[in-house]
User: Fold this.
Amino acid sequence: MKPKQDKAEADITTQHKNPYETVKDLLKDSITALNMDENIYHLLKKPMRVLEVSIPIRMDNGDIRHFTGFRSQHLDILGPTKGGIRFHPEVNVDEVKALSIWMSLKSAILDLPLGGGKGGVIVDPEDLSERELETLSRAYIQMITPIIGPQKDIPAPDVNTNPEVMGWMIDEYDKLRGYNIPGMLTGKPIIIGGSEGRLSATGRGVVFTIREAAKVLGMDLSKATAALQGFGNVGSMTAKFLYELGVKIVGITDASGGIYREDGFQIPELLAFVREGGTLSEYTEAETLNNEELFGLPVDIFIPAAVENQITKNTAPAIQAKIVAEAANGPTTPEGDKILEEKDVFVIPDILCNAGGVTVSYFEWVQNAMNFYWKEEEVNQKLEERMVEGFRNVFELREQKQIRMRKAAYSVGIKHIVKAFEARGRIKDSDLTS
Assistant:
């Protein structure tokens, strides 16, 4: 089967804003707030390595078509770089740079011994046959093999890639090396070294942070309502776990359309419908809903689980939620963020909210190194411990400094990375204060 788990997330129309410029601005702002020297900003603003590759593929009709791929490695000061591979027509070099920086910050906030990496290929998988997709997946790994490996850079699934694609990629890498190296990537099928709980990890982590935010806000989740943008792997798992906590999910949109039900969806029923090949637009037990209407729903929790640049100066004013949980990477533009701040919305920033995926990817890498594997209950317990600790560290800094959650999250991540630079003697005391 061709991978479709995140197709819905990837196709939602965005208002384009360069994510690399956004993340650099956020870094600069946080470093200034920490009273650190500008040298720290220059250390963090640029990935240490970015590779661009041309990938020639013979298509089913006999033509040769060239695809462009990228791999960005931000920092390896704490350990090998780590991050997903996305297949999408809008992949570009600035996007993968930004995503690799966000991955570094996620790992730092969750105290993982990893740096940030990210990769992608400019392609719409829906345009490819299964053979073409497999050939492209294997060829991409061939091209980036010199800079990846379990102690260098560890890929994983992302938009439009899944365990099946990871299986092709690790098989190609192992053939090139001549022996099995299960820790070379994560998110692979369990039978060849994948981890229990990995597929649901990002959504589960999102819900852990929502639960913690509800506690500090005094919100009773069993009486709360929510709306979701995106119903791919992350969005659907988030919906599943929120439903289990008693949250009433009243609105959902994806690439096919949107649905609304005032009394809330039976999420298990909806998940079964989608698993059987249905789309949200084909679900008849609800009213139709578009993105604009979704943003304006009077809900307690709003969850962008699509792609970048969704909460903008145009969409943010309509949001009525008390909590915005950023299940996607970079879903909020600086202009949108300013509006949420003025509305006093409690934002769980992406570099904290969706860090469950990289956390369980780390667990998978550890299990591969030991060649000993944990039960799903143990994986989920360890994930909860990391996510709760990360949330509390960020929230405590927010309360201490009286700053917003996003700035607090960036500050926690930056301080952690700077400590590693300091421990290695790569920065001086004079670099720590401006």
Summary: The first strand starts at residue 49 and ends at 58. The two ends are 55 Å apart (CA to CA). Residues 183 and 368 are 5 Å apart (CA to CA). DSSP finds 15 helices and twelve strands in the chain.
